[in-house]
Automatic annotation (TrEMBL):
The keyword Cell wall biogenesis/degradation does not apply. Keywords: Antiport, Ion transport, Membrane, Signal, Sodium, Sodium transport, Transmembrane, Transmembrane helix, Transport. It is found in: Membrane. The chain crosses the membrane at residues 39-57, 69-89, 101-118, 139-156, 162-178, 185-204, 216-239, 260-279, 285-305, 331-352, 364-387, 399-424, 436-461. GO terms for cellular component: membrane. The keyword Cytoplasm does not apply. This is Na+:H+ antiporter NhaD.
Amino acid sequence: MTPNSQGLKMIKLCTLLFMLLSMDASATSEPPLDLTIHWVGYTSLILFVLAYILVMVEEFTHFRKSKPVILVAGVIWGLIGWMYTSQGLPYFAEVALRHNILEYAELFLFLLVAMTYIEAMRERHVFEALKVWLINKGLTFRQLFWLTGFLAFFISPIADNLTTALIMGAVVLAVGAGNPRFITISFINIVVAANAGGVFSPFGDITTLMVWQNGIVGFAQFFSLFVPSLINFVVPASIMHFSIKNEMTTNNQSKVNIKLGGIIIIILFIITIITAVSFHNFLHLPPAMGMMTGLSYLMIAAYFIRQSECKLQQEGFDVFRKVANAEWDTLLFFFGVIVSVGGLGFIGYLTLASEAMYLSLGATYANILIGVLSAIVDNIPVMFAVLTMNPDMSLGQWLLVTLTTGVGGSLFSIGSAAGVALMGQSNGLYTFLSHLRWTGVIVLGYGLSIGAHILMNAALFDVPV
């Protein structure tokens, strides 16, 4: 290698290092090439729309949602890389893509640990024991309607809304056999409650987690949304309440005992959450590092659980099977979405969208509209797009968009993972149309929750982020 080529390589390396150090949170928010009116941009946008259509019809095609978005993510960045390389600017695209991969890596590690804990608790029969306990309580249908709703509301801030909805849905199906109207209305209530409950906690929904990990809203600040999210759930539930007959339930099931170590795993999960919050708030480290530390708690506990079960000649608890049983399709779907949306943002489309919405409509109306959009398109790409746009908003406005993207998915049954999952679980008793009949009262709760936030947290709308 000649001295000149060595010097050129060193200059390129220094240039790349400088770019990495000087990147802001939006990662090249002003890329040197505007591809929004170029065939590369048009092709990327069309491919993403086509991929997302396949995601939306997954229930009918059974074509896993991760497959089209990962393919499109690769094609989008391949086109961007080819365009920038042909213009002698390869490092701009490289740095932007690395930034997107880093964002995904933090989200991936956090969710992987949470899913592993949830899977471990499921295998230890924690959720099954809760389900049977509820079934055997001997409640009226109205009491069960409210109990499953409130449990969904308060469990989803800790567990994800999908798991919460499936557990409560199983209870409703078991108790409400022969009462299809009760099952339909209870499923709608569970979807609304689970989505609303996930709003006031960083752990309740992927969107809140993304906002928290980006350092925009502090851990304690999310609790400002507790009352608005409660209103979002209680208002429609109060109206649906009168459509359920106040009759006694009759189903009973044999008691289920939590397996060895189940209670310990619950405690360790709570400690893991505390660890993640502490890493973020006090040590200023990514929450994912705290969650990975918490995974080690489970791995160590798994060793002793396995030893105890082997002595009893039982199949030993294997933590790595729980990792394998995580929702990998969902985790890989997030990769495709984040990288694809990041590519569209790098092309320049998100800047155009930000100007069209936030500058033309204003932050409040734009954030309300984004919530409605999340009822049609999954709220993860919607929130990631907002984070990538990074509009100049107050803390109150960031909490508003967190609220609307979280609860907006309740407007339609296809608007959230909880709704889609319960449609599959209900054997045709809970459908898009049955949910649509109650959309009016859900919209009422949506509007009142927004109004409550604007009134109760008015002071936060003057607090800069």
